[in-house]
Amino acid sequence: MNTVKTSPMRVTVIVPAHNRLDHTLACLASLQAVTYPQMAVIVVDDGSSDGTAAAVTAKFPQTTVLGGDGSLWWTGAVNKGIQYALTHGCEAVCLVNNDNTFAADFLSRLVACMRESSADAVCARVIDRTNGRIFFAGGIFHPWRGLRMRRTEPGKDTREENEIAWCGGMGLLISADALRSYGAFDERTFPHYYADADFCLRLRKRGGRLVYCPHALVLNDTQSSGVSHRSGRFADLAATLFSRRSHLNLAATWRFYRRHRPLLLPLVLPGRLLRVCGGFVLHRLYRRRR
Questions:
Q1: pTM
Q2: In angstroms, rounded to a whole number, what is the distance separating the alpha carbons of residues 82 and 61?
Q3: In this structure, what are the phi and psi dihedrals at residue 261, rounded to the nearest 5 degrees?
Q4: Higher pLDDT, 29 or 247
């Protein structure tokens, strides 16, 4: 006869960080206020030059700090944290960004959702801190438009838990059993962007379940990371298309769709070029008219 676990799940929260010390300290202060009894926190400091490791150790001595040399990027940092957490007895890991803050009950909500739904992974509702609007309400994989983030929730008047195709690394709770069964993130193919979506799609293809938990709230600073072609500078246009720090990176886009939906490549890549280059031209024209 199966028994339902009632004891708190041992969860390790993993915070990848590279500089941006003020964000990291605010994130850890918010985690400190989270009302969950079995939570450990790991900061993976990938070669920061702003004293991140020393400051975190001084201000949050209960936080484990793992180091990198600047070559881990997001995926390598997450995998390093996962490996450490699994060898130290965690039952689940929760991935967050260092510019995230949290509702006090966000982790309790995620754990409850995971247990009630028997999902392998669950993700939070992400709110844009600058305007209070929904930034992420679960990811879909559109048959011809590719990866899309929902900015509204299913149902006009209800907020329902539901299965989704993918989720970013902001409030993503993954069971330790799922990580052992399906493997961790692919840091070789996707060192920075697309690794989270790739992991989720691989998990689902092998029978795993990913559920959106709208009652678990994470706040995100949407302006604090990445690069943008909207500055109107040619250097930023090049960075948008080719830098690892850009979610519009062409090489990562090619690798992702070649693996998961190769027939979309003739649509996605030209569409991306048109979006970026068209936006760049429009912003340059706007700046000149001013």
A1: 0.90
A2: 20
A3: -160, 75
A4: 29
